[in-house]
Amino acid sequence: MSKEISESELKVSKIKEGTVIDHVKAGTALIVLEMLGITGLEGTVATLSLNVPSKRQEKKDIVKIEDRVLERSEINQIALISPNATINEIKDFKVVNKFDVELPEVVSGFPKCINPKCITNAREPSMQTYYVKSIEPLKIRCKYCNTDMERNDVIKQLTKFQGLTQ
After folding, report:
1. By three-state DSSP, how is residue 47 classified?
2. Phi, psi angle pair for 126, to nearest 5°
3. CATH class for domain 106-158?
4. Which of 101, 103, 125, 135 is most buried, by the most CB atoms less than 10 A from its CB?
């Protein structure tokens, strides 16, 4: 097998340390970056591949983040947006830990409830807690006010993004 790259291929280099988020729902990698607080201004090295062909799903996005291992709360946020994503933790150019994201039955601490009258949005807010009713399509229900939120609602609450057009 030749190591040359054809004109129709683009080779993205491996990362030495960090995290690769694979099988991100096509077209949502920029939302994932924003949820993780990566703007480019803080100096984080990140590589995005958008809408690339996939054997597991028709198209996918890939996010590579150098020198960062994700926290469980960040992985749970990714699971809300892209429930089929895979996390690869990289050390010395090798995958040392690989797992699929899993959305827990109960999500706590985020996102903000869309019901402005919810107790979690009051002056003395309680921690947001949601029961996952459905993963695909996403539907979560607030523990306190029983308001249902869908994927677009969650995206709006976790980012400055104003929703998907699809």
Report:
1. strand
2. -90, 160
3. mainly beta
4. 101
Instruction: Quickly name the fold that domain 18-100 has.
Output: Alpha-Beta Plaits (3.30.70)
CA distances 55 to 52, 63, 68, 87, Å, are: 10, 17, 27, 17
Question: Tell me, what amino acid is at 58?
Answer: E
Question: Helix crossing, 72-81 with 151-158: angle to 10°?
Answer: 140
Domain spans of the chain?
18-100, 106-158
Task: Give the pLDDT confidence of 29-77 residue by residue, as tens digits.
Answer: 999 999 898 988 888 899 999 999 988 889 999 999 999 999 998 999 9
pLDDT, one tens digit per residue, over 86-104 is 999 999 999 999 999 999 9
If you write DSSP's letter for every residue of 84-143 in order, what string do you get? T-EEEEEETTEEEEEEE----SEEES-S--S-TTSGGGSSSPPPPEEEEEETTTTEEEET
> Which amino acid does the sequence have at 118?
C
Q: Is the peptide bond before 111 cis (omega within 30 degrees of 0)?
A: yes
pTM of the complete model: 0.84
